[in-house]
Amino acid sequence: MKWDKVQDIKARLSRETGAIIKDWGGKLPIAIIYPNSYYIGMSNLGIQAIYRFINDQADAICERVFYEPSDEEPPSASFNSSSATLSVNIQDRSLRTSLAMESQRPLTDFAVLAFSISYELDYFNVMQILKASGIPLYAKDRDETHPLVIAGGPCITANPLPLSPFFDCLCIGEAEAILPAMLPVLKEGSGEDRKELLKALAVLPGVYVPQYPQKLVARQWQADLDSFPVHSTVLTRDTELGDMYLIEVQRGCKWGCRFCLVSCAYKPLRFHSLDSLVEQSKAGLKFRKRLGLMGPAVTDHPQIEELVARLHKMGAEISVSSLRIKPLPPAVLGEVIKGGTNTVALAPEAGSQHLRAYIHKGINEDDILKAVAKVAEQGVKQLKLYFMIGLPTETDDDINEMTRLVMKCKEILDKHLTGSRITLTIAPFVPKASTPFQRQGMESIAVLKRRLSMLKNQLTEKGVSVKNESLDWSEVQAVLSRGDAKLAEALTKMNQVSLAEWRRVMKQARLDTDFYAHRTWKAKQELPWRMIKT
Fold first, then answer.
1. Nearest Cα to Cα of residue 372 among 331, 422, 413, 414
2. Is the domain 243-341 a CATH 1.10.760.10 member?
3. Quick count: other Cβ atoms within 10 Å of Cβ 110?
């Protein structure tokens, strides 16, 4: 054991507020594992909620584990960049990958390893953590001496198949709706006959056990959000949103964009009550002056303006995770800007009206231009616009319409302000399992590259910055999103995370990228994730 790595964890722990340290005696020890960096994971409210819920149980203990590259590796394993050259060696694994935050114990000391998986590209980190743990990689090879390995999160809810050979069971839906019934079964069956434990788990609502596959597993969701307030539990400055106290305002989304996994994995739309949000804010202001209001469409809360007004009176600075183009209440926008925001992000998603209607975005061009005008009137000089390319039915004309719309937005900003800037962030459409567009194929990389070049050529010379997510890594994401259990063989054979290595192992496993990513599946064709009822 490298003492300096343990000291690194202890130093990080010393900078936290709210970490829960419990004695292990007589308790079920569970490791909650976020397969990405501490910097990203500690801003994830799902991790915070599960951590607090389990530790609130007298007979259970929960400790956190994150994926941390070794010192020789790049500082972040993020794939959300335009670079297609990321290469992370997974032969040399960091000791911190195998140690829990609170006790610095290895994963083999825990009875349950619970992965929370939000992004398909984190599957590579999942594999590294499992390989580094010393625990058999495949669930079929484990016995009573090994921890039970489970997983949940939006990716798992949508399609658990690609990772299913590695997990004893997978949770389909929201943790608050599954854990109350699951924890007693885990406590009673821990260390006993593994097959009997898995059989007991398989009958629980929302639990998928690959060794005992059910015909249908219904996604579970929590009806009353006020019963489970979700907010920051552990605070640290060593994280992406470290200057905020985060509070969940809503869950689900009423707009139902046909490409969106979040609106499908977390429906129906639900809100935390005004009174609950105010009480959580009072508690949060003891730790941070800035409150981060979280949700896929925070401004949809029926009392959002009253909430913002009351928080203002309490002296809070306010950040909002998502500003919808419609509705965009001026009072909310004003408070966000007063809180120090100098850049506002809006998501038209598509340039033409027919395409926005087809994807069910629920806004028109007039709504977009009015929203930009509101931003300009508040004196904001930097505007980010999020668009997608490669959406089903898209043509080159839709790209030209995007350029025209962006220039209209720029004219509005320039009319109100000098020195204004617009940045476009372009993401290719990636078909997601369990969404209305789950059968649609991803556009070819060649077409995506050509349309991206069109945008850059048309807009860069006019003073608009255009950034994009990696097209090649987005293709990998599509494969993992719509994949089946056959992908497990490829995942196990990867020695480093690079495009060349991914293509090598896919070829070695005789798997076809086009089959998973680019093919449009017919309505009568069975989907790999057909057992999941979302």
1. 413
2. no
3. 26
Domains 243-341 and 342-534 share a fold: yes
pLDDT at 527: 95
Helix residue spans in 417-486 (DSSP H): 445-459, 471-481
Give the domain ranges of the chain.
3-218, 243-341, 342-534
* 3-state DSSP of 302-337: CCHHHHHHHHHHCCCEEEECCCCCCCCCHHHHHHHH
Contact 335, 312 (CB under 8 A): yes
Residues of the chain with pLDDT > 90, as a percent, come to: 86
Handedness of CA 345, 351, 353, 356 (dihedral sign): negative
* pTM exceeds 0.90: yes
Q: Which token pair is 70?
A: 């070794």
Other CB atoms within a 10 A radius of the CB of residue 99 amount to: 24
Q: Is residue 327 reached through a cis peptide bond, with omega within 30 degrees of 0 on the bond before it?
A: yes
Q: Exposed, middle or buried: residue 20 (CB in 10 Å: 0-12, 13-18, 19+)?
A: middle
Average pLDDT for the chain: 92
Tokens of 276: 């609950």
What is the DSSP secondary-structure string of 26-49? TSEEEEEEESS-HHHHTT-HHHHH
Beta-bridge partners for 247: 231, 293
User: Which pLDDT score, from 0 to 100, does residue 320 have?
Assistant: 93
Identity (one letter) of the amino acid at 31? A
For residue 330, whether the previous peptide bond is cis, meaning omega lies within 30 degrees of 0, is no
Count other C-beta atoms under 10 Å from residue 242's C-beta: 15
Local structure of 389: helix, strand or coil = strand
Q: How many helices (H) and strands (E) does the chain have?
A: 19, 19
CATH code: domain 342-534 is 3.30.750.200
Q: Tell me the C-alpha distance between 425 and 347, whole Å.
A: 9
